[in-house]
Amino acid sequence: MLNWVTRFGIFCFLDNQQYGFSNPAFECLLAAGSKKSIRADAGNAFDQLRHFYDETKGEWLFGHFGYDLKNEIESLQSHHADKVGFGDLHFFVPEWVIRLDADEVKIYGGGDLELVYGEICSCSAVTDKNNTGDLKIKHKISRKEYLAIIERLRQHILRGDCYEINFCQEFFAEDVEIDPLSVYNQLTELSPNPFSVFYKLHDRYCICASPERYLKKSGSRIFSQPIKGTSKREHDSFSADETSKNYLLQSDKEKSENVMVVDLVRNDLSRICKPGSVIVDELFGLYSFPQVHQMISTVSGEIEESASWIDCIRETFPMGSMTGAPKKKVMELIEQYEHSRRGLFSGAIGYMDPAGDFDFNVVIRSMFYNAEEKYLSFQTGGGITYYSDPADEYEESLLKAEAMMKVFQ
Predict the structure, then answer these.
(1) With a threshold of 0.85, does the pTM exceed it?
(2) At 232, is the secondary structure helix, strand, or coil?
(3) Residue 219 region, left (φ>0) first, then alpha (ψ -120 to 50), else beta?
(4) Helix, strand or coil for residue 313?
(5) Which of 171, 180, 189 is nearest to 132 (CA)?
(6) Eight-class DSSP state of 124
(7) Contacts with 46 (C-beta within 8 Å, 6 or more apart), sequence order
(8) Which residue of 333, 379, 393, 406 is 20 to 30 Å from 37, comparing CA positions?
């Protein structure tokens, strides 16, 4: 499928990597080609999307929401340069949709389905064409400066400016040529995660191994699964690995981060859900991934009949796990202290099906490649509270970057 789809200028491949705990609707889902699309930047992007959706209702939609839509939602600004260039919002009606489940393949499209199936089956398996060598990955922020920024953020928290803030740093490489498909294959082999995405918009690529769901609508119910709380896997010792995992439940700092984002999500969902219907389905759930253990909570609610799916996004975006609280203030501080534009990072990629249900991930643990500019970028970070230790936060950001670094070593 992946070798076949590279012939298209636009595609989106969603893969749950055989995880069962996220209630997947499919094993993987591929949207290939574009019959109709919309691309918009913050200003009136949501109004444009409403108009586009009215014209395409009943079709599959795939695409993304970029972090900088915050500027439209909260009347903010972004001053850093955008070197990747996905745009703030892009959705398309695909020519073909291919869905794989455990025991069947479904192909949706307006042409010869058997021909497409035959073309896919005749393609060879994914091979490693990547020959990047040991790329020189640069840090946008030095360790010394990172530690100083965390201390300044702790002072903002002490003064009462905010309770928690998500702070990120960029890693990048310039003048590089990669084979994005091989990089995706290597990344998901090193770090398979349930919200993985391989996404192409012409000469821009997102290579994503995300463990986090942003928002899912199923019927009249909506779900969010924020992640806050990270500890390292210890593969050489089962007991040490269990100790690292259980540390999350014993750490007041990790649990306070999680509770704060859960409260923020509850507040966001209450804007588009029926009064009294928002509940916490799971608090402090512990889940294990190849590199890390994560603390994940689940919050859900019953959607008001008057709320459209676009209302659901606008009232909850950007996701609290990638901002902090209170949202508007921490996004101002993020713009002040981070050195890079987030763009698609900490945005969302996903789909809307013909019945009106949708599912979007949180774009983290992701590499972005601008093939025209030969620019490669990825960002990592974490939630900062007053109790954060700057050195520990720096090490956590490196831990989250580990799998992406290994691809190029």
Answers:
(1) yes
(2) strand
(3) left
(4) helix
(5) 180
(6) P
(7) 69, 72, 89, 310, 313, 314
(8) 379
Angle, CA of 224, 228 and 232, to the nearest 5°: 130
What is the average pLDDT across 348-377?
A: 96
- Residue 403 is predicted with a pLDDT of 87
- Count CB neighbours of 178 within 10 A: 22
Domains detected in the chain: 2-407 (3.60.120.10)
> How are beta strands 279-288 and 28-32 bridged, if at all?
unpaired
What confidence score (pLDDT) does residue 131 get?
56
Amino acid letter at 62? F
Confidence of residue 127 (pLDDT cuts 50, 70, 90): low
Portion of the chain with pLDDT greater than 90, in percent: 83
The predicted structure's pLDDT at residue 110: 81
Q: Give the residue among 128, 179, 124 at the shortest CA–CA distance from 369.
A: 179
Question: How far, in whole angstroms, is CA 299 from its chain's centroid?
Answer: 18
- Of 112, 56, 117, 19, which Cα lies nearest the Cα of 351? 56
Q: Residue 31: which of 258, 211, 267, 200 has the closest Cα?
A: 200
pLDDT on residue 96: 96
Task: Count the alpha carbons within 13 Å of 353 in the hemisphere toward its beta carbon.
Answer: 15
Comparing CA positions, the residue from 188, 114, 147 lying closest to residue 389 is 147
The total number of residues written for the chain in this structure: 409
Count CB-CB contacts under 10 A for residue 174: 12
Write out the two tokens for 344.
């698609």
Instruction: Please give the structure tokens belonging to residue 156.
Output: 């903002």
- Residue 331: pLDDT band by 50, 70, 90 thresholds? very high
What tokens were used for 332? 């101002």
> Which pLDDT tens digit goes with each residue over 63-120?
999 999 999 999 999 999 999 999 999 999 999 999 998 888 999 998 888 899 999 9
Closest of 238, 226, 242, 370 to residue 285, by C-alpha? 226
Beta bridge partners of 206: 199, 368
Partner residues linked to 282 by β-bridges: 298
Per-residue pLDDT tens for 211-229? 999 999 999 999 999 999 8
What average pLDDT score do residues 273-278 get? 96
Is the separation of the CB atoms in 48 and 38 below 8 Å?
yes
Question: Are the CB atoms for 82 and 34 separated by under 8 Å?
Answer: no
The pLDDT of residue 130 is 57
As a whole number of angstroms, the distance between CA 376 and CA 243 comes to 36
